[in-house]
Amino acid sequence: xxxxxxNKKQILARLTLVPIKDKRLFYMREMKLLNDLCERYSxxxxxxxxxxxxxxxxxYLVSDKLQETMDKKFRAFNFxxxxxxxxxxxIGEKVGEDATIDKKxxxxxxxxxx
Length: 114
Hints:
114 residues; 6 helices
């Protein structure tokens, strides 16, 4: 199964507020910033990263203020658990019947009385 191609315009639309007018200048500037971010991190990461709000420009993500946040998100994106450090357990087959618990309908008065 082939992976679908990542659309950079969709990444820009998800991360930034696209203006109604002067889209051509906006996309020229933002594509340059997106390509810089893809060089620093990766295109797959930029496709997966998300924030609480949309930015006016990707210049915020390139700036020093959010570089630490982007680095943290990138490390979390690339994190792989080393399973050799942890023992694996084989709990075996299930034994016995499942217990059925009858649910009693309790009112507030029953709860407070007892």
